[in-house]
Amino acid sequence: MSKVIPRIGRRRALQGAAAGFVALGLLLWWLVPLGEEPPGGTITFSTGTPSGVYQEYGRLLRSELDRDMPDLTVKLRTSDGSQENVARVASGQADFTIAAADAVETYKVNGGRGAAGLRGVARLYDDYVQLVVPRDSDIRSVADLRGRRVAIGPPESGVRLIADRVLGAAGIDARKDITPEPDGIGTAPGRLRSGGIDAFFWSGGLPTDGVRRLAEGFSLRFVPIEPGLVTKLHGKGDVTRYYRATNMPESAYPTVQNGAVVPTMAVSNLLITRADMDPRLTEWVTRTVIKSRDGIGAHVHSAQLVDLRTAIYTDPLQLHEGARRYYRSVKP
Q1: Contacts of the segment 305-312: beta carbons below 8 A, 24+ positions apart
Q2: Using one digit for the tens of pLDDT, what is the confidence trace for 296-324?
Q3: What is d(CA 148, CA 185) in angstroms, rounded to the nearest whole number?
C-alpha cells in the first residue's frame, strides 16, 4: 500500500525544493548568466613588456576567459606600456588593455585619435614608481640623478611619462640634465647589473618580476620619491592629479628593503575598451575579471587588490555599458 504524503508535508517539501533551486540559480547566475550562451569571437588584448605585470596579468586573464568563454579567442600583444596601450585601443588596433590613469588622461588632453570613444571596464590595482640603483651608489635622491645615465623607459611607455614628470619636479630636464636611456623593465635590470646605466625608473605593480629577479643576484636599493615632489606635480595641472604620495610596503621586496618602507608615488591602473565593443561580451569580461581575482592574485600579487567596491571608479573614463550592466547586476 502506497503512503500518501500529508498535504502540509508536500507543501513544505515543494518550498524546500524551490529554495534549493533559487540558491543554485543564484550561484550559477554569479558564474554564468542563466539562459545565456557564452559569447565567442576574437579579441586582441594589448599587454606590456615581457617582464612586467601587465603581460603576466594578461596571460593569466586569458586563461580565465578561456574557461568562461571557450568560443572566445584572446590574442595577446606585447607593448611598451600604457601610452602605446591607450593608443592601440583608441585606434582599434586592440580591443582591451590595461593602462595607468595618467596615461589615459594625457591621451585625452592631447586630443589623441579616438579618445572620445574610450571607456572604462574596471579599476584594477596601483602601479608604484620604483627608482632603482646599485646599493653602493651615491644617488640618494631624484636630484642626485643630474649628470647620470638613467633609463626612463621606451617613448610610448607609462614609465616614460612618469619619469619625465618626476625628474621635472626635481628640476631636472630629461633631455639636457641626464643621459636618458630608453630601457624598460625588460633590459634595464641587466644594464644596471653590468654598469651600463646608473639608475632606472620603473612603474608597476608590486612586486614586479624584473626587479625581483634582479634582487636575487644583485645588491640594489630604492631611491625614495619624496612627498614634496608629488605635491609639486599636483601643481602642474589636472593630468597629475592621478598621482598620490604613498609608501612601498616593506613586504614588496623583503630582501632589498629589510623591513623598511620606501616613500614613493602610485597611480591606478584601468582595464579599458572602446564604446563600440559588444556590451554582452564586455559584461562577461567584467564578470571574469572580478571573479578571477583570487586565482590570478595567487600568481600576480597586485591582482589581489582588485575589488568590486572600487572597480567601478574608472576616472577619467566613463564605464562601458556592458561593465555597467554587470556592476548593476551585483549591486546589493
Answers
A1: 305/124, 305/125, 305/126, 306/122, 306/124, 306/125, 310/123, 311/122, 311/123, 311/124, 312/122, 312/123
A2: 988 888 888 899 999 999 999 999 999 99
A3: 18
